[in-house]
Every structure is written in C-alpha cells, then in structure tokens.
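From the pipeline queue, job 12 of 40. The input is one protein chain; the requested action is below.

Action: predict structure.
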Amino acid sequence: MRYVKTCISKNFKLKFTIMKKISYLLLFAFIASTLFISCDEDDAEKSPFVKVKIGAQDNTSVGGFYSINDKKVYTQDQAATKQEKIDFLCFYEEGNDISLASPGANITDIFTGATAPETWTTTDTTYFYQTTLTTVQFDALTEDDELIVTSYNADEARRKAKLLTVDDIYAFKTQDAYYGLLKVTEVANDSIGYVKFTYILKK
C-alpha cells in the first residue's frame, strides 16, 4: 500500500515538474515574441521617410491638406482650424493636372466654401524645386544628408509643383524653414483624384 502511495506521489511530482517547465517555456516564448515585435516596430519608426496620400479639391474620401509638424492629412474644414500648421495642399486643374502647393500659393477659384484657403488669415508658403535626382539617390538618403538642402534652388523654386508624375523628385522649403525632398509615387489625375508621395526632412 505504501508503495502505491509512493508511486502516486512520484507521478504527481513528475507531472507537476513537467507542467512547470511547459509553463516556463510558454512564458519565455511569449516574452521573446513580444520583444521581437517591439524591435520590428522600433525599426519601422526609425525610418526617416514619411509616406503621404492627399486628395484633390473634390476628393471626399481623402483630405487634401498636410501638416509636416503633425505628420497628418486634414480635410479642408479641419485645415481651416489649423492654418498655421498647413504646409502642403493638393489640387487639380486643367493644364496643370494634379499639383502640390501651399496655402500661400495664391490659388483661387479651386477650393470652395467658407473654409477655402483664400479666406484664411494665416497662409504659410512652401516653395518647390524639381530636381534631377534619381530614385536610387532618393531612396539612399538619410536625415543628415546635405543633399536634402543643396538640392534646393531658391532662385528657381516655385510655389507650385505642377503636372506631377511618378518618380518626380522635388526639393522643398517650408515657411518654417524645413528643408526636404519628396518623391511622387502615385498620381490619379482628376479633381476627385489624389497624389501619393514620400518625403524626407533634413535633421
């Protein structure tokens, strides 16, 4: 009888030990996977490139105004409440197709309503200069690359970047003196269209 009790006791201890080991292994696997995911997210956040999609004036699904400080796209009504933060806007017109500009570009008869940029009291201006950089050069940029600044030509810069096509690369300077480079990645030419671009700022 004592032998039976001893066997039961040993079996119980063995099962308990195995269960503890399994629990530790599962806990370790969970912690390890969490750390790996966290590292992946951190790596993604460290990318100096920002991807943006903004819509033209009649696009009702994608906002057409962008703030570099906020790294956020706004609708026209939202942008009107954040006038001092808006650096880019997108619009379409015959002859210029999809274009990028800023509230200070003196664009009229494009946007409508009480919140149209021409009614704003604060209209910051961003200037654009189309470069001859290749996509390979752009993709290799880092935030401390002097090319981001030296690619900008103040004498030739304009308040509008017109007739945008995929792989166009523009140097720009904002009202707040941010220097950057942007690469056009997708264009839908229409007043309900949009433009996608990737940009990088000089740190």
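Job complete. The CA atoms of residues 38 and 44 lie 10 Å apart.
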